[in-house]
Design goal:
This protein is of the alpha+beta class. The chain has a domain of about 250 residues: Rossmann fold (3-Layer(aba) Sandwich). Helices cover about 15% and strands about 35% of the residues. The strands form seven sheets. Strands 5, 6, 7, 8, 9, 10, 11 and 12 form an eight-stranded antiparallel beta sheet that branches. Strand 13 and strand 14 form a beta hairpin. Helix 2 runs antiparallel to helix 3.
C-alpha cells in the first residue's frame, strides 16, 4: 500500500471502494447481464457480456443512474432518465453493445415510474404516476406506433408482471385506499390491444383485518397461467401459487429438513423451467436461501454465510447467484457453486466490527436492536450514535454499511433499532404505525436508549440521534418529543413539516400517508400536527444538523425550509447543508462530504477530539 493510500482514513476507503449490485440477466440471452456500480465515483448502469467478459458503462450522468432493465432478448438496455434525482422522467433505451440513446416509448410524458414490463414478443407496458392522473398503465403492442392507456386510478398502483407469452398482465393496486396492503388484478390483453379482467385477489376490501397480497411473477413457461404471489393470510409474508385461469390456490408448506416451519417473512421466485422455487427467508435481521421442489415439497437449504442476502437470482445452469454481506464483511456477488461471480474493480474496502443482537422490552412488545462497539481498548460507556432506518416499512440488518462503520472508526458505539413499523417481524409489527405516526417508533427507540444507558454501553451526555429519510423525520421528531434524551441530532432528507410535506410530495407517498394517518391533513389535521416535527420545534434543546436535496420529491425542500426558518426565529443552534440532487446522492464524493460535515458537527458540539477515522477513540 502506498503512503498516499495509507493516509486515507479507513472510513473514506469504504465509501470510495467500488461496489456492484446483483447482476440481472436477459431471459433469452443469459450471457447478457446488467448491474449498477460506482466504479467511476458515481452510481451508473453497466452491461456485462459474460461470454466475452466485456464490461461497458451504459449511462453517464452527473447525478447517476440506478433504474434499468434488459429486454428479454438481451438486445436493449432500458434506463429511467430523470432530472438531477427528482425521480420524474421517461424511459430511454440503448443497444446492449452500445450506441445512441433513444426515447423508448415516444408519446408518454414525463412521470414518476410505476413499473416497466418488457415482453418476449416486443410488448411493452409502462407504469406512470403523476399528481394529476394518479396511476396509469400504458400498453404498446409490437408494431404499434403509440401506446394505449389500459389502466387508470387515482390511488397508487403499478405493474406486477407480464406473462411469459405476453397475454396476461398482473397489476398491483391500492384502489381500496390502503397503501400498506395491495391487491392484485389480472387482465388479458386482447388482440386489438385492449384488456379484460381475468381474476382478482383482494384481501382488504370488506375485511376487519386487512391482509396484503403482492405479485412475485408469472411462471416462466409459455402458456402457463400460474402466478406466484406473496400474501399475509397467516400474519406474515409467505408465498403461494395462484392459477389465474382456474382460480386454484396452492399453499406452500415451507418446512426445513427437521420439519420446522420457517419463522419470519418468506418470499420466493420461480427457478427456470418453473419446476422449483428459489425461496428467500428473512428473520431477525438476517436472511438465507432455500430451493423448493414443487413436485414433492422438499425444501433444501442453500449454503450462504451468516449475514444478509440482499438479492438472489437462479441461473439456467442450476446455480444461484446472490449479493451477500455482513456488518463486518463487505458485499460481493457470490454463487452457490462456491465462487465469487462479480467483484468490483480495485481494492476491497476495509471490514468493520460484527453486530450484537439485543432484545429490549418495549411498550408494544420486544424490540430488536443491532449494536456495534468500537474496536478500541477503551471501555464504555461510549459516545453513541442511534442511527434510525428509513422506510418506515424497512429494517436494519446484519449487512455491511459504510456509514455506521465510519462512526465506529471514530470511537462511537452504534445502535440501530427495528422499531414498530419495521419489516421482518410479522404483519402486526409492521402495521402498528397508524394514527400516532412517529410517536410509536419513538417509544421503541426510547426503550432501547434506556437499555443502552443502563447497560453501560452509552454515555447519556453523548448520545447522537441520526437518520435519513424516515430516520431523519424520526430524528427531528425525537429532538422535540424527547428533548432530554439526546445531545445532538443529525437529520438527512427528513420530513420536518408534515402538513407542507404532504402538499408537495410525490403521489405514491401521499397515498401511504393517507393510510398511516387515516386521512388527509384536511380530514385529520390533529393527527398530522401531533406527528409533525415542526409542532415541537420550540422544545428542541440541542444543536441540529440538517442535510437536504433541493430536488427531493419524497421529502421536499419547502417543508424543510419551514422548519429551518423556525429554528432561526427561535435562536436554536443549527446548521443546514443543501445539495443539488434528490432523495440522497449517487455521487461518492458527495456522500463522503456529507458524512464529513456530520462528523465535524458532532466533534465540535460534543467536544470530542477524535482521530481521522482510523479506528481511534473519540
Amino acid at each position: 500500500m502506498s503512503e498516499e493510500k495509507s493516509a486515507v482514513p479507513a472510513w473514506e476507503q469504504r465509501f470510495r471502494a467500488a461496489r456492484v449490485s446483483l447482476p440481472d440477466w436477459a431471459e433469452d440471452a443469459p450471457d447478457r447481464s446488467l448491474y449498477v456500480s460506482n466504479a467511476t465515483g458515481t452510481y451508473e448502469v453497466y452491461a456485462w457480456d459474460r461470454a466475452t467478459g466485456a464490461h461497458r458503462r451504459v449511462t453517464d450522468r452527473p447525478n447517476g443512474t440506478t433504474d434499468a432493465e434488459l429486454s428479454p432478448d438481451g438486445d436493449w438496455v432500458w434506463w429511467f432518465d430523470d432530472h438531477d434525482g427528482d425521480e420524474f422522467g421517461v424511459w430511454r433505451r440503448q443497444p446492449f453493445a452500445g450506441g445512441p440513446d433513444e426515447e423508448a416509448v415516444p408519446g408518454l410524458a414525463a412521470s414518476y415510474s410505476a413499473g416497466l414490463a418488457l415482453g418476449r414478443d416486443g410488448t411493452v407496458v409502462v407504469g406512470r404516476s403523476t399528481d394529476e392522473d394518479g396511476t396509469t398503465l400504458h400498453l404498446r403492442r409490437p408494431g404499434a406506433a403509440v401506446p394505449v392507456e389500459v389502466y387508470r386510478h387515482e390511488e397508487y398502483g403499478g405493474i406486477g408482471d407480464l406473462s411469459h407469452d405476453s397475454t396476461l398482465l398482473a397489476i398491483d393496486h391500492t384502489e381500496h385506499g390502503d397503501a400498506m396492503h395491495s391487491a392484485i388484478r389480472v387482465v388479458r390483453i386482447t388482440a386489438d390491444g385492449g384488456v379484460e379482467t381475468v381474476a382478482e385477489l383482494d384481501e382488504v376490501t370488506g375485511r376487519d383485518e386487512p391482509r396484503g397480497v403482492a405479485c412475485l411473477g408469472f411462471a416462466p413457461v409459455e402458456g402457463d397461467t400460474r402466478l406466484l404471489v406473496a400474501h399475509q393470510r397467516t400474519g406474515r409474508w409467505e408465498p403461494m401459487i395462484w392459477d389465474v385461469a382456474t382460480g386454484a390456490e396452492t399453499a406452500l408448506p415451507l418446512r426445513d429438513e427437521q420439519g420446522r416451519e420457517l419463522p419470519g417473512d418468506v418470499s420466493a421466485q420461480w427457478r427456470p423451467g418453473a419446476e422449483a422455487l428459489l425461496v428467500e427467508h428473512e428473520y431477525e435481521a438476517r436472511s438465507e436461501l432455500f430451493s423448493y421442489a414443487l413436485a414433492d415439497g422438499r425444501l433444501t437449504r442453500l449454503e450462504t454465510p451468516r449475514g444478509t442476502v440482499s438479492g438472489a437470482t437462479a441461473r439456467p445452469d442450476g446455480t444461484v447467484e446472490y449479493l451477500w454481506s455482513s456488518a463486518a464483511e463487505p458485499s460481493a456477488v457470490r454463487s452457490t457453486a462456491g465462487t465469487v461471480v462479480l467483484r468490483a474493480p480495485g481494492a476491497v474496502p476495509p471490514g468493520s466490527v460484527p453486530v450484537e443482537d439485543v432484545w429490549v422490552d418495549g411498550p408494544g412488545g420486544r424490540v430488536h436492536a443491532l449494536v456495534q462497539r468500537p474496536a478500541t481498548p477503551a471501555q464504555g460507556p461510549y459516545p453513541t450514535v442511534f442511527e434510525i432506518h428509513g422506510g418506515p416499512t424497512h429494517h436494519d440488518s446484519d449487512s455491511f454499511a459504510a456509514g455506521p462503520a465510519a462512526w465506529l472508526d471514530h470511537g462511537f458505539a452504534v445502535v440501530r433499532v427495528n422499531y414498530r413499523g419495521s419489516t421482518g417481524y410479522g404483519q402486526a409489527w409492521t402495521d402498528a404505525l397508524h394514527e400516532r405516526v412517529g410517536l410509536i417508533e419513538l417509544e421503541d427507540i426510547a426503550a432501547v436508549r434506556a437499555w443502552a444507558v443502563d447497560s453501560g454501553l452509552a454515555d447519556p451526555a453523548r448520545l447522537v440521534l441520526t437518520g435519513g429519510s424516515w430516520g431523519g423525520y424520526l430524528t427531528l421528531l425525537g429532538l422535540g418529543v424527547q428533548p432530554d434524551d439526546w445531545a445532538l441530532g443529525l437529520a438527512a432528507v427528513p420530513v420536518a413539516d408534515y402538513h407542507t410535506a404532504y402538499a408537495d410530495e410525490m403521489e405514491a407517498l401521499k397515498s401511504l400517508d393517507r393510510t398511516l394517518f387515516g386521512g388527509t391533513p384536511e380530514e385529520v389535521p390533529e393527527r398530522f400536527t401531533a406527528s409533525s416535527p415542526l409542532t415541537y420545534v420550540e422544545r428542541v434543546r440541542v444543536p441540529v444538523y440538517i442535510s437536504a436535496g433541493v430536488n427531493d420529491p419524497r421529502c421536499p425542500i419547502r417543508q424543510i425550509d419551514n422548519y429551518v426558518e423556525r429554528l432561526e426565529l427561535l435562536g436554536k443552534p443549527h446548521e443546514v447543508y443543501r445539495f443539488d440532487a434528490g432523495h440522497g446522492s449517487l455521487v461518492v464524493e458527495e456522500r463522503i462530504k456529507q458524512l464529513r460535515l456530520e462528523i465535524d458537527f458532532v466533534r465540535r458540539h460534543l467536544g470530542t477530539a477524535g482521530r481521522d477515522g482510523d479506528g481511534g477513540a473519540a
